[in-house]
TrEMBL record:
The keyword Magnesium does not apply. It comes from the Bacteria. The lineage of its organism: Bacteria, Pseudomonadati, Pseudomonadota, Gammaproteobacteria, Pseudomonadales. InterPro entries: ArgP, LTTR, LysR_HTH_N, LysR_subst-bd, WH-like_DNA-bd_sf, WH_DNA-bd_sf. SUPFAM superfamilies: Periplasmic binding protein-like II (SSF53850), Winged helix' DNA-binding domain (SSF46785). Residues 2-58 form the HTH lysR-type domain. Pfam families: HTH_1 (PF00126), LysR_substrate (PF03466). This is Transcriptional regulator ArgP. Keywords: DNA-binding, Transcription, Transcription regulation. One of its GO terms (molecular function) is DNA-binding transcription factor activity. Belongs to the LysR transcriptional regulatory family. PANTHER family: HTH-TYPE TRANSCRIPTIONAL REGULATOR ARGP, TRANSCRIPTIONAL REGULATOR.
Length: 296
């Protein structure tokens, strides 16, 4: 039988990315949190954490974290069914991994009614859409919005729609680097803007127009900063059409070439045994995501 105080300590260390912050969340000393982790490891007979910066769960630790996530959600269902348990219930916290572009565009408007109706607080973990599922695999989150279709064992994956990206730059950048007859060759010699090491959208676009993927680029791990860098003329890049409707209408950003947009599919991943709250969030997202994402 698990001692859930020990599992709560493990979850807090991983979610808070360290023992000190975990201790503050749990209302314990850092030494007490460390002792609980050591006791958990003694009981299971092997390490549950890799003591790095930040601490990371071992393979067994990941399985325990997945279990904790699901138990928390199932406990909420039980509280709703037993009135004496429900009286002093605090708002539920859901940790969700998603890409920065979703967070900067459609996500907030989509989930606001759900959070208000169900008294839910969200902890967001931002990852590139290509790799966001790793957070769920590590047991850190209850759900994930990412581009991967295949679900993890014990989870479900459901298609939400596609986010449409356009290759854009400022008019000044286009005049300086691309001239009157822009081409894949001239674009390959111009500086691009890339969100981070896992962002392959610009490479995918260059491949679609027959260009080279060896272009020079800035790194900018911020959706809002990415747009500001485009407007300033520092480079060209793929940006969600949703995010820059105003800039396009005002002529502050223009398409670098006449090529087609890039549509990135987005899937909602969630644990099968995540309880009624996670099931309801899933139904809510499936009902409303088409207002912002391309579904054709």
């Amino acid at each position: 039988m698990f001692d859930y105080k020990l599992l709560a300590a493990l979850a807090a260390v991983v979610e808070q990315a360290g023992f000190e912050r975990a201790a503050a969340v749990l209302g314990l000393s850092q030494s007490a949190v460390s002792q609980r982790i050591k006791l958990l490891e003694a009981r299971v007979g092997q390490p549950v954490l890799l003591r790095g910066v930040p601490p990371r769960p071992t393979e067994l630790g990941q399985r325990l974290l997945n279990h904790v996530q699901q138990v928390r959600l199932l406990e909420r269902d039980l509280q709703g069914q037993v009135p004496t348990l429900d009286e002093n219930r605090l708002p539920e916290r859901l940790r969700i991994a998603l890409n920065a572009d979703s967070l900067a565009t459609w996500w907030a408007e989509a989930v606001a009614p759900f959070c208000t109706e169900h008294a839910v607080l969200l902890d967001h973990v931002v990852e590139d859409q290509a790799v966001g599922l790793k957070r769920m695999r590590a047991g850190e989150v209850a759900g994930c919005v990412c581009a991967a279709e295949r679900p993890l064992a014990g989870a479900r994956s459901q298609y939400l729609g596609a986010m449409r990206y356009r290759a854009l730059a400022s008019p000044a950048f286009q005049r300086r680097y691309l001239g009157s007859q822009p081409s894949a060759e001239t674009l390959a010699r111009a500086p691009a803007i890339v969100f981070g090491p896992d962002d392959r959208l610009q490479h995918r676009y260059m491949a679609s127009i027959g260009g080279s993927d060896g272009f020079i680029h800035h790194l900018c791990p911020s959706s809002e900063g990415f747009v500001r860098m485009l407007q300033s003329g520092l480079g060209w890049g793929l940006v969600p059409q949703l995010q820059v409707r105003g800039e396009l209408a005002r002529g502050e950003l223009v398409d670098v070439l006449s090529g087609p947009p890039i549509d990135v599919p987005l899937y909602w991943h969630h644990w099968r045994n995540g309880g009624a709250l996670l099931d309801e969030l899933t139904r809510h997202l499936l009902r409303c995501a088409g207002r912002w994402l391309v579904t054709e």
